[in-house]
Amino acid sequence: MSEGWHGWDEYAPFYDWENAQTVGRRDVVFWQRLAAAQDGRVLELGCGTGRIAVPVARAGATLIGIDRSPAMLSRARQRLRRAHLNTQAHLVRGDIRSLPFRARPGFALVMAPYGILQSLTREADLQRTLASVARVLRRGGLLGIDLVPDLPRWAEYERRTSLTGRRGQHTRLTLIESVRQDRRRRLTIFDQEYVERKGRERRVRRFALTFRTLSVPQMTRRLERAGFRIQAVLGDYHGGPWDRRADVWVILAARR
């Protein structure tokens, strides 16, 4: 079984281009407001290219971002430099299953945006991560989790052209995607093929991304066992209530 962090270095050159066409910035204000409401430092798990970290820091939060992928972190550091936020936000390469931070004074908020916990492909990995978060989160501090809804229900398909468009003036990108399901392990595997065309040049990059999905009730039970108290379960980024058909699955939990 593939580790959940496999493929993300290869994904780094395409991540922002793809997300601009899918999730865009619709979750950014939610995280900015959540961070602004806390009194203390913010930690982002799986900060990637800085899509969330940079606007949250720009809004005034003191932020630390952690990610395992050096290719992703390189792009995030470029964003921070361009935004002149190097003193407001700091990036660390590390494993979210064993966070390299002291328990005290602890973080006021730990953010897990856009399905980052679904990259933990084993139950033991999730348990280790929640325990590690509980250790570095101060008592009463908040953990925010955003899950990509119901990936196990996605239909399997092969070599579908999912996205196409320009990146910059001279490059055209096409994403050809296949989806596989391992329902016994609750895994959804996306086989990605990016085709770059620049003039007469053509380059193909292939890699796979693997995600494990738990339902909202399953995730809340694991949070409670890890020492958290559920504060809210949301079905959108405006505070609306969750139901099984919601387009967004957000859980807010406080450390007991």
Describe the overall structure.
It is a single chain. The protein is α/β, with parallel strands linked by helices. The chain folds into 2 domains: 8-148 and 214-255, Vaccinia Virus protein VP39 (Rossmann fold, 3-Layer(aba) Sandwich); 151-211. Helices cover 26% and strands 36% of the residues. The protein is built from 6 helices and 11 strands. A hairpin with a 2-residue loop joins strand 8 and strand 9. Helix 1 (8-21) packs across helix 4. The relative contact order is 0.16.
Quick structural gist:
Helices cover 26% and strands 36% of the residues.
Chart the SSEs and their pairings.
Layout: H1 8-21, H2 28-36, E1 42-45, H3 53-58, E2 63-67, H4 70-82, E3 89-93, E4 107-112, H5 123-136, E5 137-147, E6 157-167, E7 171-182, E8 187-198, E9 201-212, H6 216-225, E10 228-234, E11 249-255
Parallel strand pairs: 1-2, 1-4, 2-3, 4-5
Antiparallel strand pairs: 5-11, 6-7, 7-8, 8-9, 10-11
Helix pairs in contact: 1-4
Number of helices: 6
Instruction: Give the C-level CATH assignment of the largest domain.
Output: Alpha Beta
* Helix share bin: 25-40%
Distance between the termini: 34 Å
Order of neighbouring strands in the sheet with most strands: 3-2-1-4-5-11-10
Radius of gyration: 18 Å
Task: Give the low-confidence spans.
Answer: none
Strand content: 35-45%
